[in-house]
Amino acid sequence: MSKYKVNVISNEKEVTTHELELKQPQDKQVLIKVDACAICTLEQRVYKGVMKRYPFAGGHEVAGTIESIGENVKNVKVGDKVAVFLLTSCGECYYCRKGLENQCVQSFRTSIHEGFVGPGGLSEYMLVDAKRVYRLADDINMSHAALTEPLACCVHSINNAKVELGNDVVVIGVGIMGGFHIQLAKLRGARVIACDINKGRLDVARKLGADIVINSNETNAIEQVKTLTEGRGADVVFCTAAISQLAADSVEMVGKLGRVIMYSSFHPDNPIDLNVNKVHSKEMIITGAVNPCTSDFLTSTRLLSYNLINVSDLISDEININDIQKAFEKAIDPLTYRIIVKCNR
Ligand SMILES: [Zn+2]
Ligand SMILES: [Zn+2]
């Protein structure tokens, strides 16, 4: 019986490699040879000790190739390139039955590798139910494909914001999530205004299609957005930076009937002052976006398979799985974009 490797965050700043027995898929299972797994904020927080849940088999942004299939698998065949949807949902709760499985009461309690909690993408192989894999184009770049899940989160966010043709859309923060929001808002026909305090990131924003960039270190971004919109304020503001002041600024930037999306999660979760009368009289909508639904995930696989999204500029490095510690150290540098772990190279 052959073995395969799984990487597990075993403590603060500590990753250990375990060897497990490689099992063959049964019934409706598929065995995936993992090509690429990106290190997301969740894994970074566990690694840094911000979230102490050890041991944690991290890695939920995964793309791989079908190695073998169970006897009742119909949707994929051996050799297919796939993205893996690792967000679990029970299918039985109120939200699942409304088709909003991203709000499932039991979401994200995956355990892919025997004995370890967590989605487990930082491994050589994964054995999962066939319904979790989504087929991709044969010629797709697998490092790009690993970003299906974060892009799907942004698709969900764009859908929540109901971005319309000709809207003024502000994206606060040009990290990877800001970069995806810029591109998706452009695809929806908006004029996109990107805000950041880092010049390099604003250059990336322009490259990804932002029409206007604002360096919030140099200008008052709220005033600037008002000026650009004849005093009205934006139609949509996405806050993709986890800073409470920026969340407050987002509410100030939006105009009548505008939508504010709190995309980031906040740790620590410092409350902000909210002028409720403004919400009342402007009829503004303040909402969030957390995790994708299956339909968002499907949309994301199509956007990537059809090459409609620039992913190259949002990947800082590709690192071999044997250098996993180095990959984590690089990933936690706040100025890097995604670090991709190549799991079988
Ligand atoms: Zn993620
Ligand atoms: Zn559910």
UniProtKB/TrEMBL annotation:
Residues 7-341 form the Enoyl reductase (ER) domain. GO terms for molecular function: oxidoreductase activity; zinc ion binding. It comes from the Bacteria. Pfam families: ADH_N, ADH_zinc_N. Its cofactor is Zn(2+). Keywords: Metal-binding, Oxidoreductase, Zinc. Gene3D superfamilies: Medium-chain alcohol dehydrogenases, catalytic domain (3.90.180.10), NAD(P)-binding Rossmann-like Domain (3.40.50.720). InterPro entries: ADH-like_C, ADH-like_N, ADH_Zn_CS, ER, GroES-like_sf, NAD(P)-bd_dom_sf, Zn_alcohol_dh. Belongs to the zinc-containing alcohol dehydrogenase family. This is Enoyl reductase (ER) domain-containing protein.
